[in-house]
Amino acid sequence: MGSIDTPTITENGSIQSHAAAAPADDNQRPLASSNGAPESEATKKRRSGILPLEVGTRVMCRWRDGKYHPVKVIERRKLQSTEPSDYEYYVHYTEFNRRLDEWVKLEQLDLDSVETVVDEKVEDKVASLKMTRHQKRKIDETHVEVGHEELDAASLREHEEFTKVKNIATIELGRYEIETWYFSPFPPEYNDSLKLYFCEFCLNFMKRKEQLQRHMRKCDLKHPPGDEIYRSGTLSMFEVDGKKNKVYGQNLCYLAKLFLDHKTLYYDVDLFLFYVLCECDDRGCHMVGYFSKEKHSEESYNLACILTLPPYQRKGYGKFLIAFSYELSKKEGKVGTPERPLSDLGLLSYRGYWTRVLLDILKKHKGNISIKELSDMTAIKAEDILTTLQSLELIQYRKGQHVICADPKVLDRHLKAAGRGGLEVDVSKLIWTPYKEQS
Ligand code: ACO
Ligand code: ZN
User: Fold this and answer.
1) Which residues are near ligand 1 (CB < 6 Å)?
2) pLDDT tens digits, 208-239
3) Nearest-ligand number for the alpha carbon of 352
4) Which end of the chain is less enclosed by CB atoms within 10 A, N or C?
5) Per DSSP, what are the bridge partners of residue 403?
6) How far apart are the C-alpha atoms of 299 and 297, rounded to whole Å?
């Protein structure tokens, strides 16, 4: 859900839309055996020689846009019969984000394009999908964001090995059935279920619909636990202390990981506050998204993880959550920055937010303004201001100093390109005091 028009960040960091991701002429190839013509003996022989495909094989695969894109086979599983062609393959589209990895049928693959060189180490990888207890603990216990650039090659391989195939395909949450994006380390007894049923209020999850129905008759929550710190119209924000509501915090992490790559979870949610945004009606307060925040951050992080649930994405809630995190920083009298690395969608949302906030000020401001002043006004960390303005080419380096050059016409052009403003946070509706350790 919400992924068809998802942009991809290429290796050089630029953003591509999927439509533009594949070369136009090269991706309309016919299938070796699906053009209606009977297969020649030579083709049959070749097919039987390469089937079933090895894990690690690179081949072209027909995607949901009807075009062929390069993929790498991540895993395979046998179907009922004994034919070597009767396998399904879990593939990663090498040009796209991992959230688009999926099981495909043989007929989607163009066998003429098979590259026979199988990636090194692949043989070791196929040996077993099962996690050792140590590896499971590693995945479960660290909440710290882990991104490619922070992992050595061995840890990265380990991460990709044990998170390579989505374990849960869909979840039911409130009135939505949602397709998941990534692996999440649910307790082992849940790993044989393709679908999980979540109580939308306490976030307990179950394997069967009847269990959920029974639970809903007993569950007396109608909103997240914790304090309602913001209400404006039908929107409410709840602050949930991970220490006081441990199970809720853990459930939220399990749920969130289904949509966050390179995030690992840990059970020690005590150190975090969770800000859960809800749309409220007479049935209760329905979770739209959330962000987590460390109670004490030495790196001046004001946000650890952010998520808008897929059915609510692209409606401005992400920018609302980001704006909210900066409003909390303003109340704390601190500057803040999100924990790194940012996902592709996280980066787009932050860039859009920073651009809009900073350029709005520059447009209204008469005379010179420094990065420090901008930081004081917005609670955005100076480095983030500098990189944003640099990427917009609004910074010049003169006599050892960074100078902001803001031509109104250029500002207007950038503002237009930065997209919509998102939902506004009405600060007068925020009733909150910064976290203080209770003795
Ligand atoms: N395609 C293209 N651009 C997109 C997309 C998309 N699918 N999604 C977001 N954007 C960009 C757009 O510029 C958009 O602004 P616009 O709609 O005005 O053009 C902007 O990001 C933000 O849009 P919002 O509607 O305010 O954000 P949304 O509610 O969709 O939430 C979020 C953004 C939270 C990043 C969401 O995509 C999400 O939950 N993703 C999965 C989890 C994730 O990656 N979180 C960030 C990890 S980094 C961290 O946690 C510190
Ligand atoms: Zn419940």
Assistant:
1) 2, 5-7, 259-260, 303, 305-308, 313-319, 338-339, 342-343, 345-346, 348-349, 352, 419-420, 422
2) 999 999 999 999 999 999 999 999 999 999 99
3) 1
4) C
5) 396
6) 5
pLDDT at 84: 66
User: Using 50, 70 and 90 to split pLDDT, how confident is the model at 40?
Assistant: confident
Q: Which ligand is nearest to the CA of 2?
A: 1
| 341 burial via Cβ count (<10 Å: 0-12, 13-18, 19+) | middle
The closest residue, in CA terms, to atom 20 on ligand 1 is 349
pLDDT at 267 over 70: no
CB 278 within 8 A of CB 238: yes
User: Rounded distance, CA 347 to CA 44, Å?
Assistant: 47
Q: Please identify every residue annotated as catalytic.
A: 339
For 42-59, write each residue's pLDDT tens digit: 777 777 788 899 999 999
Indicate the pLDDT class of residue 156, thresholds 50, 70 and 90: low
Distances (CA, A) of 135 to 162, 250, 427: 8, 19, 44
Tell me the domain boundaries of the chain.
Answer: 52-115, 343-419
CA distance 75 to 165: 7
Nearest to 259 by CA among 99, 117, 116: 99
Q: What is the pLDDT at residue 159?
A: 64
Query: What dotted CATH number matches 52-115?
Result: 2.30.30.140
Q: What secondary structure does DSSP assign to 288-351, as a single string?
A: EEEEEEESS-TT-EEES-EEE-GGGTTSSHHHHHHHHHHHHHHHHT--BEEPSSPPHHHHHHHH
Class of the CATH domain delimited by 343-419:
mainly alpha
